[in-house]
Amino acid sequence: MHFTDSSSLYFKDYRKFGRLYYYDSLDYINNKLGVEPLSSNFSEDWLYKHLQNSGRQLKPHLLDQSFIAGLGNIYADEALWFAKLHPKQIGTSVSRKKSKILYNAIQRLLQTAIDNQGTTIINFYFGEGKTGNFREQLKVFGRQDKNCPRCNAVIKKIRVAQRGTHICPRCQNI
């Protein structure tokens, strides 16, 4: 798409998850999205309170954009691994201590991924043909059948809420 100021917008979605919408105002979108995980509105207390009010499994809850905006499959798997939480664990069963670890993992992962220009898995490129460099730092995502860097167990790929999910069965037991 080309604009009158000579700028352009390019959108290519190999995986077919993406959508492009145009709105005159951001109000509609902002009212549907959950908390931004790198904002001051996202806190240890906020996360713990919302998990305690959830009867949902952790993985689909973390992927729900009306709960936390922008936390995708890769970072959900990684954050749950860091917190030693199983993706099928119910939110109400998460202790305050584990919730704090999960909160810190989400914050650290997202900021580190941003600092490394994101996570290129297949063929994503941003300006000048560059790719994201965070992939080399992934601990479980995309590492099925490899050893867990923490305990040396074999990482498994399972399905949770119709999504491929990577876990260490030893570190992340229910």
Topology:
Layout: H1 27-32, H2 44-52, H3 58-63, H4 73-82, H5 96-115, E1 156-160, E2 163-167
Antiparallel strand pairs: 1-2
**Strand elements, count:** 2
| Largest sheet report | 2 strands, antiparallel
Percent range for β-strand residues:
5-15%
Structural class based on helices, strands and sheet pairing: mainly alpha
CATH third-level topology of the domain at 27-119 and 130-137: Helicase, Ruva Protein, domain 3
User: What is the strand arrangement across the widest sheet?
Assistant: 1-2
Helix content: 25-40%
| Overall mean confidence score, pLDDT | 89
Could you tell me the radius of gyration in angstroms?
Answer: 17 Å
Please tell me the CATH architecture of the domain at 27-119 and 130-137 by its name: Orthogonal Bundle
Q: What is the CA–CA distance across the termini?
A: 48 Å
Q: Which overall shape is indicated by the principal axes computed on the Cα atoms?
A: globular
Low-confidence stretches: none
SSE string, helices as H and strands as E = HHHHHEE
* CATH top-level class of the domain at 27-119 and 130-137: Mainly Alpha
How many separate helices? 5
